[in-house]
């Protein structure tokens, strides 16, 4: 099988891009924090997104509102917490 | 301490790579959506992965199947939801 | 409206950086695994971070300790599990 110059350039570009991507992504990491609040709501800092919520009273029913807020749905929630993450540079 | 030309090149490369990684990762973000379904299962879209699950009836027992599906384990689940995310470009 | 050479360079750099970021981030993905253990604690592998926890006995009250460990808070936990992720190269 033959390949012309354009193929070589394209191949080289793919190899280079993959190597570059690997080097860049080696420096990428998930940076997370936990926010706990009294009551039914817990807010992530504005630059982080909620990945999950935990709730007092053993409650596992929750929803995420506006990509920012954990809402624990059970009655008489004593506490709510949000697990909040972003992509950062190590 | 002395350093030769190779050290300088290597040092420059590390600095450049770190700057490039920082610039590229500034444009990276977690893109997420919530999927709610009736019953015991909720599926993430194929290009997103489940980060967590929430369940009706206050249930906090769940598992993730095939890197795609939230399964709420309690009996008589009225609803299940999946928190689904991917890495995107801002 | 006029723009000088510096503007052109800056504009070109932004376009190039955006294209490069897009190409690199196309190769980025969330790589996740589930760790289930008996008792109240489940640990993520050292290179992954907990995104959420699930607990036996329908329990939805949990916390994440030291960015590594899921702790299910209800009494007599039969099992605990951790959803663990990192940024990887596809």
Compact summary:
The structure is a homotrimer of 90-residue chains. Chain A has 90 residues and is an alpha+beta fold.
Protein architecture, described:
- The model of chain A has no long low-confidence stretch (mean pLDDT 90).
- The first copy, chain A, has a three-stranded antiparallel sheet with strand order 1-6-3. In chain A, strands 2-5-4 form a three-stranded antiparallel sheet, with no helix packed on it.
- Chain A is an alpha+beta fold.
- Chain A has a domain at 29-89: Sandwich (Immunoglobulin-like), CATH 2.60.40.
- The first copy, chain A, contains one helix and six strands; from the N terminus they run αββββββ.
- Helices cover 24% and strands 44% of the residues of chain A.
What is the terminal-to-terminal distance of chain A? 43 Å
Q: Could you say what the CATH architecture of the domain at 29-89 in chain A is?
A: Sandwich
Instruction: Indicate the structural class of chain A.
Output: alpha+beta
The largest contact between protein chains, plus residue counts on each side, is: A-B, 28 and 28 residues
- Largest beta sheet of chain A, briefly? 3 strands, antiparallel
CATH class of the domain at 29-89 in chain A: Mainly Beta
Strand order of the largest sheet of chain A: 1-6-3
The value of Rg of chain A in angstroms is: 22 Å
Low-confidence stretches of chain A: none
Mean pLDDT of chain A: 90
Strand residues, percent of chain A:
35-45%
| Strand segment count of chain A | 6
Helix content of chain A: 10-25%
Which geometry of chain A do the CA atoms define? rod-shaped
Q: Helix segment count of chain A?
A: 1
CATH fold label of the domain at 29-89 in chain A: Immunoglobulin-like
């Amino acid at each position: 099988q033959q390949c012309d110059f354009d193929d070589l350039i394209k191949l080289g570009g793919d190899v280079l891009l993959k190597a570059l991507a690997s080097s860049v992504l080696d420096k990428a990491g998930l940076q997370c924090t936990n926010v706990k609040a009294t009551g039914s709501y817990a807010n992530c800092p504005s630059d982080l997104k909620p990945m999950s919520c935990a709730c007092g009273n053993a409650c596992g029913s929750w929803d995420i509102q506006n990509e920012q807020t954990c809402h624990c749905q059970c009655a008489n929630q004593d506490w709510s917490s949000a697990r909040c993450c972003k992509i950062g540079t190590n």
